[in-house]
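hey can u check if this looks right to u? its 264 residues, i copy pasted from the old doc so theres a chance i mangled smth
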Amino acid sequence: MSTNLTNINHCKNCGFQIDHYSFCPECGAKKITKRITFKNLTQEFSDRFLNLDNSFIRTFIHLFTTPKDVIDGYINGVRKRYINVFSYFAISLTIASLYSFVLGKYNDTIFSDVFTDVNQIEVSKVASDLSFEYQSLISFLTIPLLAFISRLVFLNYKKYNLTEHFVIHLYAYSHITMVISFITLPLLLTLKNLFLILWIQFPVSIIYIAYVLKSLYNLSLKKIVIKTLLFVLIISIFFIIFSIIVGIIMAKMGLIPNGEPSTI
């Protein structure tokens, strides 16, 4: 069976005439002249994700080393050097979903090792299942909240508006979600200590966000510590309110065995 397609005269993506081009000059899409084979499919995967020169690996590394270049660059119009913020977020959701899928297989063991009370185990499993099921929705709601709190904390700075804070936290949240998934899954499966993992996740996330904001705003260590403490205070208040509301809802829906509201 031939692997060649019929002559490609127009871009399959935008319709622009591309008789003598390898890439569409209008939208930049590559001109595909052969049918998909396993070889070129694996080659495309390798070029896109495993090549150290590609934008994903570059973005991942630079969000550690020079987050200002990635985030401030995107805000100010740099689009080709790094992977765009929404694609990066989509990749992080995929990785987090795999993390949740694997973790879900060990729910019974993990919660049985952490809690001794049957009711506590059941409540924790219900909360865990709900968080896994609605993980994407939770992420979509969390990032605007983080952006709002961040803008509040930096209200006396005019460098970035609320929408730009959304971009900042979309990158930061996506990045730290991937990193934490890579680090904590093997720890959780080996140590089976849920509280230890949670104590790792929260400070690591806060420290990374502080690092990103320090880089973006060129703050001194003293100023970023003060801003971070204020950020943590506000987010803790939101979390307590959210936990109480969720506990009440779970109780009313009969998801808590003893029928009593419980924070999660």
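Residues 176 and 208 are 7 Å apart (CA to CA).
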